[in-house]
Design a protein that fits this description.
The protein folds into 2 domains: 135 residues, Rossmann fold, CATH 3.40.50; 153 residues, Aspartate/ornithine carbamoyltransferase (Rossmann fold). The chain contains 12 helices and 9 strands. It binds phosphoric acid mono(formamide)ester (CP) and norvaline.
């Protein structure tokens, strides 16, 4: 049986910013090992009998399925809790919800709007709280992203990651993860769509090179990783037409890929919108690592759960 240290036991994962380089590396190392064990059909029931509650206030394909399958493969079980079905949706306090759920569950995964709600849940829960996406962060996605980069290049340090498009939740968490792990990061966004100042400050504090530009063509030049995400995130549907106009020219197509490094990999957290932030030929082209990236959500989150839910 794979050995798992106790050092991260009980920790919440609400923001990449709160975790050190070494802590992130611990997750990545275990994720690689769990991926290997799964492929070899070797038993890895690291969390027998544990229960994960999954609160969803927004839709999901990858996050829901990877967490649910992940805890099952570790020997535990998951409860899907639609926020609208909980008393939370009728005004029960986050504090009271956290206190009660802590009596039943071993960890909570939550996907919602406000980051402050996740922080409040974590502050009042006596069990780990994992952020499954908020308007400002998507830390579990960032774990799978850096796992994929490391898998493809054998390292993260010294690489250049170029993010093109909306400087959103995915961009912010990825930027901080890359910075902590020693990659340079350039975000090319239209004016008004830059990543949050707080994320830029945290990323810069790690000492990595962080650049924010409004020129997608120059950002792509020589990049080892090209990354993009949807132009209209969940909860922004009313702004869709405006966003399509503002973000035109910031998508990834074959021309953008040709400007990057010869061995560039293209990543996208998915779901994708063909012809907006990415073209179908790039998504399915030979530079794409998108499908491994989606699979790695499973392995990275299994490692995270195994470490914090012990
Ligand atoms: N990338 C991601 O979080 O996908 P879902 O919205 O399908 O969970
Ligand atoms: N930025 C997107 C990511 C979806 C996984 C959103 O928040 O909708």
């Amino acid at each position: 049986m794979v050995a798992v240290a106790d050092s991260l036991k009980g920790r919440s994962f609400t923001r990449v910013a709160d975790w050190s380089r070494d802590e992130l590396m611990e997750v990545l190392e275990l994720a690689d090992e769990l991926k290997r064990l799964r492929r070899a059909h070797e038993e890895h029931h690291l969390l027998p009998g544990r229960t994960l509650g999954m609160i969803f206030q927004k839709p999901s394909t990858r996050t829901r399925v990877s967490f649910e399958v992940g805890i099952y493969e570790l020997g535990g079980t998951a409860l899907y809790l639609a926020a609208t079905d909980l008393q939370l949706g009728r005004g029960e306090r986050i504090k009271d919800t956290a206190t009660v759920l802590s009596r039943y569950l071993d960890a909570i995964m939550i996907r919602t709007f406000a980051q402050s709600d996740v922080e409040e849940l974590a502050a009042h829960a006596s069990i780990p709280v994992i952020n499954g996406l908020t308007d400002s962060a998507h830390p579990c996605q960032a774990l799978a992203d850096v796992m994929t980069i490391r898998e493809r290049f054998g390292r993260i340090e010294g690489l250049t990651v170029a993010y093109l498009g909306d400087g959103n939740n995915v961009c912010a968490s990825l930027m901080v993860a890359c910075a902590k792990l020693g990659a340079s990061f350039v975000a090319a966004t239209p004016t008004g769509y830059e990543p949050a100042e707080e994320a830029i400050a945290v990323a810069r504090a790690s000492g990595a090179g962080i650049e924010v530009t409004h020129d997608p063509a120059s950002a792509a030049v020589g990049a080892d990783v090209l990354y993009t995400d949807v132009w209209t995130s969940m909860g922004q549907d009313a702004e869709r037409e405006q966003r399509l106009r503002d973000l035109r020219g910031f998508g990834i197509d074959a021309g953008v890929v040709a400007r990057a490094s010869e061995n560039v990999i293209v990543l996208h957290c998915l779901p994708a919108h063909y012809g907006e932030e990415i073209t179908e030929d790039v998504l399915y082209g030979h530079h794409s690592a998108v499908w491994d990236e989606a699979e790695n959500r499973l392995h990275a989150q299994k490692a995270l759960m195994a470490l914090v839910m012990r």
